[in-house]
Amino acid sequence: MERKEEAQDEVHTHHLPLLTPYKMGNFQLSHRIVLAPLTRQRSYNNVPQPHAILYYSQRTTKGGLLIAEATGVSATAQGYPQTPGIWTKEQVEAWKPIVDAVHAKGGIFFCQIWHVGRVSNQGFQPNGQPPISCTDKPLTPQVRANGVDVAEFSPPQRLSTHEIPGVVNDFRIAARNAMEAGFDGVEIHGAHGYLIDQFMKDQVNDRTDEYGGSLENRCRFALEIVEAISNEIGADKVGIRLSPFANYSESGDSNPKALGLYMAESLNKYGILYCHMVEPRMVTVGEKSDSPHSLLPMRKAFNGTFLVAGGYNREDGIKAVAENRADLVVYGRLFLANPDLPKRFELNAPLNKYDRETFYIPDPVIGYTDYPFLGSTN
Ligand SMILES: Cc1cc2nc3c(=O)[nH]c(=O)nc-3n(C[C@H](O)[C@H](O)[C@H](O)COP(=O)(O)O)c2cc1C
Fold this sequence. Notes:
By secondary structure, this protein is of the alpha/beta class. It has twelve helices and 17 strands. Flavin mononucleotide (FMN) binds at residues 36-39, 69-70, 112, 189, 191-192, 241, 278, 282, 285-286, 309-312, 331-334, 359. Belongs to the NADH:flavin oxidoreductase/NADH oxidase family.
C-alpha cells in the first residue's frame, strides 16, 4: 500500500509543470524555476566580490536561469550602498569569475542592469551632484526595506531632452560590458520605481517634451533602451522587467493595465527574448495583498517568453505554469533562503525561512552563503 503511494508520488513529481524543460529562444532550460534579481549590498565600492562566486553557484542548476542582482549602468546609477556596477573595466573583470562559476555548473545567467534615477541622493552621486530623473519632483523620505532606516533623497535634476540619448547610451554600453563579462544576456530593470519606471508612470513623469504626456511618449525612453541594447547585443539576449501595477517610491500609474499592455505589444516589434512582470498583488516590496488585476492580458499580448514574479510559492508556481499563465516563475525570497530550491520543490521538501535582517547587510557569509542545503546538518 505504502509502496504504491510512493510510486504514484514519483510519477506525479516527474510531471510537475515547474520541472518540465522549456526552450527560451536559443536557451534550453531544464526547468521553470528562476532566481530573481536580488540586491544584496555586498559589492564593496560597487565592485562585485569573490564571495558572490559561491552565492550564485550555490543557486545554480544545470539548465536553470539566474538573474543577477541590479547592477548600475553608470556612475550616476547608484542609490544604495555596496551595489555592483558594470560601467568600469574593474567591475567587468570582477564579474567574470562569478559568471564562469555559474556556467561551470550549466546555469544560464542574465545581468539585470539598472539606473535608480531619483531614488538616490547626492551622497551616491559623482561630485555630489543631484540625482537625475525625468522630473525635478523630489521623493519623500522612505523607510528602507529593513523597516528601520529611513532613506533620504535629494531633489533630482530633470534631464533635458538632449541629455536623454546619453543615458540610453549608458544602458547600451552596460549591456555590451555584460556580454564582455560573459553573461548570456541582460535584463533591463524597468520596474520598481527606478529611472525607466519613473519615465513610464504618470504619477512621476511631468514632462512636456516627446518623453512625457501620452502613454507612447512616456514609454519612449524604455523602448529606446530596448532598441539600443537589441541592436548592440541581439534581441535574442534581451529581457525586460516591468511592474506596471506597483507604486514603489511614489511611482504609480493611473492606468497600469493600459501601460502593461502597451509595453507588451511594443516589445513585440523588437522581438526581445523575454518579458518579466511583477504581479499586481505586490503592492510594496515584500508584501502581498489581494488584487483584482492580473497579468494575463500582457501574457497573451507578448510573443516571447513570459516570466512572472511576486509572492509565488510552490503550489502557486505549479498552477501558473499548468494554466499557461507563465512560461517561467521567478522566486526571490524563497530562493535567497533555499539555495537548492528546485530540488526542494521537486521533493516537496520543507523550506528554510528567510531572515529579513540579513538581506542587505555587508557580511560576505551571514545570510548570504550560509543557508543550509537539504540534508546538510548546518
Ligand atoms: C533582498 C531583496 C532584494 C531585491 N532586489 C531586487 C533587485 O535587485 N532587482 C529587482 O528587480 N527586484 C529586486 N527585488 C524584488 C524581487 O526580485 C522579487 O520581485 C520580490 O522579492 C518578490 O518576489 P518573492 O515573493 O518571490 O520574494 C528584491 C527583493 C528582495 C527581498
